[in-house]
Amino acid sequence: MESRDFAKQLRQNLTDAERVLWRHLRAHRFQGQKFRRQQPLGPYILDFVHFGARLVIEADGGQHSESTRDAVRDAWLASEGFRVMRFWNDQILKDTEAVLESILQALAEASPLSPDPSPTRGEGSNARKV
Fold first, then answer.
1. Could you give phi then psi for residue 36, rounded to 5 degrees?
2. Domain containing residue 8
3. Which residues of the chain have a pLDDT value below 50?
């Protein structure tokens, strides 16, 4: 199966934890930030990714406990310039606010959440005064 088809299948069958997290991250709901879910990248399919901040969010179940494949995957993503954050499914379900706060902090570290004003719309410091 092609990775795009597999990603589509994963999007249709989210885990409970992925569903809870996606409810907060989708449609620019999270501080206006753009996340994608079940996104193919290289040989992998990422649970959630913010390409602008180069941030990957993974919701992990018990099958990920001490997974050497996850370590290889994380190393590959790091070599491509991505930061990977992993949260256990039960952590997402039981302490959603703390997980979201951690993601917000990572976004703030990656780049300012409030972009500079747009000089083309007359909002920047070089805006012409009329």
1. -120, 150
2. 3-114
3. 64, 114-118, 121, 123-130
